[in-house]
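Hi R.,

Here's the chain you asked about this morning:
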Amino acid sequence: MGKLWKNKNYDEIFSFCEGYKEFISSCKTERECVQKIREMALNAGYKNLNDCIKNNVKLKSGERVYASNLDKCIFLFKIGSRPLSDGMRVLGAHIDSPRLDLKPTPLYENSASNLTLLDTHYYGGIKHYQWTALPLALHGVVCKKDGSKIELNIGEQPQDMVFCISDLLPHLDRSTSKSPEAKIVGESLDVLVGGIPLDNEKKEPVKANILKLLKEKGIDEGDFISAEIEVVPAGHARDMGFDRSFVLGYGQDDRICAYTSLVAMLDSQKCTYTQACMFVDKEEVGSQGASGMQSLFFEDMIAEIADLLGEKPNLTLRRALRSSYMLSSDVTAGYDPNYESAFDKNNDAYLGRGIAFNKYTGGRGKSGANDASPEYIAKLRALLDENDISYQLTEMGKIDQGGGGTIAYITANYGMNVIDCGCPLLNMHAPWEISSKVDIYEAYRCYKAFLEME
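And here is the predicted structure, written out as tokens:
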């Protein structure tokens, strides 16, 4: 357990992480993740399950299919040699990350300053002040009444403009810095987007100019109502540290597990039990909604696969879920020497010591937690040691310091064996998060070995 960088293949680790950095740099929304995952799956020979259903194409061992829902979640399946009712090997990661969303009516001009801003609503657990005074980008989709869509990705290219949320200078911050509101920022997370007035426009001239520029891209003010635009940090993931041992990037919770799970799924060879890899939305806000883990989409797709395999859909579905093993692939808090008082040194995850397993998450007295069985953990220990994979058994900070959860408790309701398993991070939920490259690589190795587990 807990092996360090010693005796590791640096070139192999660093090469793998180049692909990871590119993934999280180009996939900053759920839709962008789904689009990229679908593209990589198609290149690897996966077929659209909906096409198989429509054309009644029977499935057999070794075949690979994918199913996506609302372009915001996607599942990959590889059919095993054993009956589906014998269970599956399941990896589950989420592809949503904390951010700011534009409100339905976001654009307004401040009458005193004539500056024009976008009103936002934060998504997921964030420290609001961390989102001020840094370059931001706009990613998303605008759906027009005629059925057309306009995709937005502004702020990532060197020639692009960027956006920013202003912060109060320290010279004027003496009275407010002592109040709790100053640390929260709250409703003031509005994005500055313009300052040039439109000629001969007397009412809200700067806003009118912004609307004119948007009109040139085919976007009317009313189109914001049917848009999904996310405000995210601008810029690519970068190597961090003199030794380049870390990755600094946005959205590593939980796209670090999404990427390693995806590549493990595409690279896996032996497939005795049907393999499933889930990339879901809405985890940061409770996993509700049609694209979240609490929807019935996962169950529906397994039933459809059972039907195409010639098995009884309903009975096979229940038996498959109950007999499955799953890794709920999600990140955990890494021990941070700058904030030692929040951690339990003997039981928390450390960067650079391999993939971290959380027997339970939740808060305080394990509230809201899945609690993995010791029999399952013993089976995983044997697998990890057999494949010389570095790992840690951890908690997430001191007991009453806080807490957190994943999708594990949802799939545990099926009766399957589930445990949380992912990379430790520093700066979790901040605009820029820190991971260790060796942990990323060990996560990939762990997920691949798990998918091939007998």
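One quick note: The chain has a mean pLDDT of 93.

Cheers,
M.
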